[in-house]
Design goal:
alpha/beta; Endonuclease, Chain A; 21 helices; 3 domains; 508 residues; 7-stranded mixed β-sheet
Length: 508
């Protein structure tokens, strides 16, 4: 135990965090000293906090997010306004705006058949409205000529992924939030190195915060020496700025432009149940083959170019060159924290509000704002069969405690909430009325909806809808349903702690 504590304290994450805390303490100390010594400075900081509060309330951010910061500013009137400007303000600096302009999305080069959306309008206006909104917001269009395959477990998806990597002849793109040493990464790395040595272009991007506790410092340089092109997304540095919260939570694999994988699983042995952390780990993913992969390719290249501040030359060289039998329509999409939109959340809200028969959801976290709770309650009270599966064994006790604070309101309205008894369900999926389904990386929490880079694939009138539905129904057999009696039996100590944490829910 002592060795683990020492290792944690000596880690790069702890060192950087301590440096950030030192900066915060130094800043607070200086402000406190100056405000005590010079009354005008104290008055100026008080006035600034008032101005920031008024300005914050006038913004179009999520009300819960604004309320959290208002509470913090009012609780710390001398420091609160400054803290918000440093960490809470989502307004992009001019340098970031200029960078975004230099790296416009590649979506204008990946336009699909323009007749698909009008056809969908004729078949189902509600689905077409969703597709139109996603296309207009993210720029990613509908696709046909695309085959699909669903994986109910990470155990199932990675053998196919390894086979796809072995088949690579031109290039491999991989993007993950977490990479950890183990059987899975060893198998993947062996293939990547061998393929790179044979002339296949291998580009790997991973999030620094996601991997900081698993990979050694400068591991990216080790991989480059093995022949891989590597980008570490948003390196965790001792900077007092909001950008450190914007993590790359996406999971994308593209092989030769013709095969693409997306889903909730990262590269670590617990995702394939080779290493047990929180009981049985259930994750889901999908593989698409054909023209629709072009959108996943564009997502990867766009973020790679943005992070490295380079222009990707001739992106059309990475376009798919094979088509497959169409299984409904597919629409990959991504969600960025830099556009002041919440596409992932909007997709969920649209599906919830338009469901007429059933709506099934799986999510590892249930950190909901008032708008999302009202949508779920309204749907259930309208007679829609709404069911949500969350973990029984949590990976973060405090997040699970806050998730449970929503049970009473949901269950009372007729939403059926279940906990996955074998362990931790990490799958992020939603399906409705056998017409539309989404499988991707977006959790039902503030971080996924507002702070992280996320992605997913929407399926319209596809066999994938029934497949996702059946997977969720089968999973219910290993779940316990939360009843009003169980909600009432939650210990009062947990309720108190959760209520306190809940005040900072948008920051979890």
């Amino acid at each position: 135990m002592l060795n683990k504590v020492i290792k944690l304290l000596m880690s790069r994450a702890s060192t950087i965090t301590l440096l950030i805390l030192f900066q915060m303490a130094f800043l607070m100390g200086m402000i406190h000293y100056l405000s005590d010594m010079f009354l005008p400075i104290y008055i100026l900081l008080q006035i600034m906090s008032i101005i920031v509060t008024v300005w914050l309330v006038s913004q179009q951010d999520n009300p819960a997010y604004k309320m959290t910061w208002v509470i913090m500013i009012l609780s710390l009137p001398v420091f609160g306004g400054l803290f918000y400007l440093l960490w809470g303000n989502k307004r992009l600096p001019r340098s970031m705006k200029d960078k975004l302009r230099r790296h416009d999305s590649l979506t204008d080069r990946v336009a699909s058949d323009p007749s698909l959306l009008p056809q969908l309008w004729q078949e189902d206006p509600a689905l077409a409205a969703q597709a139109h909104y996603i296309a207009s917001t993210s720029g990613y269009s509908l696709w046909e000529d695309t085959a699909v395959k669903f994986y109910p477990l990470g155990d199932d998806s990675f053998p196919d992924m390894l086979e796809a990597l072995e088949s690579a002849e031109r290039f491999i793109f991989m993007e993950f939030f977490i990479i950890n040493f183990g059987t899975l990464w060893d198998s993947i790395l062996e293939i990547l190195v061998r393929k790179a040595q044979s002339g296949v272009r291998v580009m790997l991007m991973y999030d620094d915060m996601g991997t900081i506790q698993y990979l050694p410092r400068h591991y990216d340089q080790t991989l480059r020496e093995l022949g891989l092109e590597v980008t570490v997304f948003n390196p965790y540095r001792p900077h007092l700025n909001m950008a450190m919260n914007n993590r790359d939570h996406r999971k994308i694999v593209v092989v030769d432009g013709n095969i693409g994988f997306c889903g909730g699983a990262n590269i670590s042995d617990e995702y394939i149940n080779q290493h047990e952390r929180f009981g049985h780990w259930k994750d889901t993913g999908v593989r698409i083959s054909g023209r629709g992969v072009w959108s996943l390719t564009a997502m990867f290249l766009s973020l790679w170019g943005f992070e490295n501040d380079i222009i990707i030359p001739n992106p059309e060289d990475f376009a798919p060159n094979r088509s497959f039998a169409t299984d409904g329509l597919v629409q990959p999409f991504d969600d960025t924290p830099l556009d002041r939109r919440s596409l992932g959340k909007d997709i969920y809200l649209n599906m919830i509000s338009r469901a007429t028969r059933y709506l099934y959801i799986t999510t590892p976290y249930l950190i909901l704002d008032h708008e999302m709770v009202r949508a779920l309650v309204r749907s259930a009270e309208s007679g829609v069969d709404v069911r949500i599966i969350v973990p029984h064994i949590p990976d973060k006790w405090y997040v699970h405690a806050v998730s449970r604070t929503h049970y009473a309101r949901l269950v009372a309205a007729g939403v059926r909430v279940y906990e996955y008894l074998p362990g931790f369900i990490h799958a992020k999926q939603i399906v409705s009325d056998d017409k539309i389904a989404v499988v991707g990386t977006t959790n039902m929490d503030y971080r996924s909806f507002y702070l992280h880079y996320e992605c997913g694939i929407v399926f319209y009138n596809s066999s994938m809808c029934a497949t996702v539905r059946d997977d969720i129904l089968a999973t219910l057999n290993t779940c316990c349903e939360i009843t009003t009696e169980e909600v009432a039996s939650i210990p009062w100590t947990e309720r108190v702690v959760a209520a306190i944490i809940k005040m900072f829910e948008p920051l979890l």
